C-alpha cells in the first residue's frame, strides 16, 4: 500500500497534503480509491475532506438504487467510472440515498423503541443462566428480543391481555447462547388455580418442566420453587385490578395513562373493554370519567386505525358511546345533573335505563342494560318493539318486494324443471 501511495504522490506532488489525508481515510483498506481521489483533487472539483466524505458514502452505497421504477438511478460499483465533471452528480446521488436510508432507520427505531422503564427482577442467577420476573410490557419486549413470543410484540396487546387475566411471566436466558431454541424460555404462571405452568421456547414451542430439566439440569426444580414463591408474593397488576373492578384511583389513572400513551399499540377490542372496565370502578374520579366520555370514540378509532384489521364494525361508535354512558349512569361519583343528561341520551338511543347494571364477563367487569332472564341483547329487543307506524309500513313494503322476487325465481326454476322432463 505504501508503494501505491508513493506512486500517487509522484503523480500529483503538488497535492501531497490532500493525498495523505485521503490515504488516512481511505475506506477500502488497501488505498484502491486513492488514485481516483487524487484525480479529483487535481481537477480542483473539491477539497480533500469533501472527497474523503464522498468516498465514505460510495463505499457504503455502491451498487445501490434510488427512486421508483422508471426513474431509478444506481451508484456504479466502479468509482473510476466517474470523471471529475461527474463528481457533483455522484455526491448528490449519494446524499439522496443517505437521507432515504436515514429516514428508514428512523422509522425502524420508532417501531422498536421501548418507551417507559423496563421493570424486571432477577430471581435466579448463576454462571450459565439468569431467570427474571417480567413485570411490564417494556421488559417483555426488551428481554424477549429475537424470539417469536406474542407477548414480546411491541405493537400488539397480548401482554396486557395475559396481565388482565392474572398471568405473570418469568424469562430464562442463557448467558452464553448456544444457538438453539432453549437460549431463551418464557414461563407463564396463570395464577388461576386451573391451568398448569407452561414454558415456551424462543420459537414459541410449548414445553413442560421435565423437558426444561433435561436441558438445564435439576436446578430447574429449585428455580420453579422460587417462581411459585414469587408469584404468590406478587400482587395483581393494576390492569387486573381495573378489570376486576377493585382498583384504586392511582391504579385506574396509571392504566388510563398507559393506554392513552400507547393507544397506537392497543388492540381496538381490548381498548373498548378497558375503557368500559375503568368506568365500572367506583374509585374512578369524576374528572377521569368525563375525559373518557369525551375521548372514548377517539381513542378507540386511533387504536382501530393503527391495528392490522380493516374497516370497523357497523355501529361501533354508537355501541361504545352507549356502553360508556350506561356505566356512568350507575357510577357513584357522577352528580345528579350529569346523570339526568346521560339518562335522556340513553333513552334516545333506545336503552332501558331501569335495567342497567354491572356484570362480570370472562373475569372482567362491565355494564349491561339487559334483563337477566331474557339475555344480554335486551336493548335490541326494545328497539324492535319501539318502531313507529311509518317504519313498520316501510318494512312491510320491502318484504313484499322481496316476496315478489322470490316468487319469480320459483317460477323460473319450475319452468326449467318442466323443460328437462320434456327433453327426457
Entry summary:
This protein is α+β, with helices and mostly antiparallel strands and 424 residues long.
Strand proportion, as a percent range, falls in: 5-15%
What level of helicity do the residues show? 40-55%
Structural class: alpha+beta
> Mean of the pLDDT scores?
84
Estimate the global geometry from the Cα principal axes.
extended
How would you describe the oligomerization state of the chains in this entry?
Answer: single chain
Low-confidence stretches: 371-386
Overall number of strands: 10
Please write out the topology.
Blueprint: H1 2-11, H2 16-25, H3 34-42, H4 48-61, E1 65-66, E2 73-74, H5 87-112, E3 120-125, E4 129-134, H6 137-143, H7 158-164, E5 168-174, E6 184-189, E7 198-201, E8 206-207, H8 209-216, H9 219-233, H10 238-244, H11 249-261, H12 268-279, H13 286-305, H14 316-329, H15 336-348, E9 357-361, E10 364-368, H16 378-384, H17 389-423
Helix pairs in contact: 2-3, 2-4, 3-4, 4-5, 10-11, 12-13, 12-14, 13-14, 14-15
Amino acid at each position: 500500500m505504501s508503494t501505491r501511495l508513493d506512486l500517487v504522490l509522484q503523480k500529483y506532488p503538488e497535492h501531497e497534503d490532500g493525498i495523505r489525508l485521503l490515504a488516512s481515510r481511505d475506506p477500502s483498506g488497501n488505498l484502491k480509491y486513492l488514485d481516483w481521489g487524487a484525480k479529483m483533487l487535481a481537477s480542483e472539483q473539491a477539497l480533500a475532506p469533501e472527497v474523503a466524505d464522498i468516498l465514505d458514502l460510495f463505499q457504503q452505497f455502491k451498487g445501490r438504487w434510488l427512486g421508483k421504477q422508471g426513474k431509478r438511478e444506481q451508484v456504479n460499483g466502479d468509482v473510476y467510472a466517474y470523471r471529475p465533471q461527474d463528481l457533483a452528480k455522484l455526491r448528490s446521488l449519494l446524499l439522496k440515498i443517505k437521507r432515504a436510508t436515514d429516514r428508514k432507520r428512523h422509522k425502524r427505531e420508532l417501531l422498536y423503541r421501548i418507551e417507559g422503564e423496563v421493570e424486571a427482577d432477577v430471581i435466579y442467577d448463576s454462571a450459565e443462566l439468569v431467570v427474571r420476573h417480567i413485570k411490564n410490557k417494556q421488559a417483555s419486549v426488551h428481554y424477549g428480543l429475537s424470539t417469536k413470543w406474542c407477548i414480546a410484540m411491541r405493537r400488539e396487546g397480548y401482554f396486557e391481555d395475559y396481565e388482565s387475566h392474572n398471568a405473570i411471566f418469568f424469562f430464562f436466558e442463557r448467558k452464553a447462547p448456544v444457538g438453539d431454541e432453549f437460549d431463551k424460555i418464557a414461563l407463564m404462571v396463570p395464577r388461576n388455580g386451573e391451568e398448569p405452568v407452561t414454558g415456551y421456547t424462543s420459537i414459541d414451542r410449548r414445553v413442560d418442566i421435565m423437558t426444561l430439566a433435561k436441558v438445564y439440569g435439576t436446578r430447574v426444580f429449585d428455580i420453579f420453587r422460587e417462581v411459585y414463591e414469587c408469584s404468590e408474593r406478587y400482587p395483581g397488576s393494576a390492569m387486573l385490578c381495573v378489570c376486576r373492578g377493585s382498583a384504586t384511583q392511582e391504579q385506574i389513572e396509571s392504566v388510563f395513562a398507559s393506554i392513552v400513551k400507547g393507544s397506537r399499540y392497543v388492540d381496538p377490542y381490548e381498548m373498548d373493554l378497558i375503557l368500559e372496565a375503568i368506568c365500572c370502578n367506583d374509585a374512578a374520579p369524576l374528572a377521569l370519567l368525563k375525559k373518557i366520555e369525551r375521548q372514548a370514540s377517539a381513542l378507540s378509532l386511533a387504536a382501530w386505525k393503527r391495528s392490522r384489521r380493516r374497516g370497523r364494525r357497523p355501529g361501533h361508535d354508537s355501541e361504545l358511546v352507549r356502553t360508556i354512558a350506561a356505566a356512568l349512569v350507575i357510577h357513584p361519583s357522577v352528580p345528579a345533573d350529569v346523570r339526568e343528561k346521560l339518562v335522556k341520551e340513553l333513552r334516545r338511543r333506545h336503552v332501558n335505563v331501569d335495567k342497567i347494571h354491572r356484570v362480570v364477563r370472562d373475569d372482567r367487569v362491565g355494564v349491561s342494560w339487559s334483563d337477566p332472564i331474557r339475555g344480554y341483547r335486551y336493548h335490541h329487543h326494545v328497539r324492535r318493539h319501539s318502531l313507529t307506524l311509518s317504519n313498520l309500513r316501510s318494512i312491510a313494503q320491502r318484504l313484499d318486494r322481496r316476496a315478489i322476487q322470490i316468487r319469480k325465481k320459483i317460477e323460473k326454476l319450475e319452468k326449467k324443471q318442466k323443460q328437462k322432463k320434456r327433453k327426457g
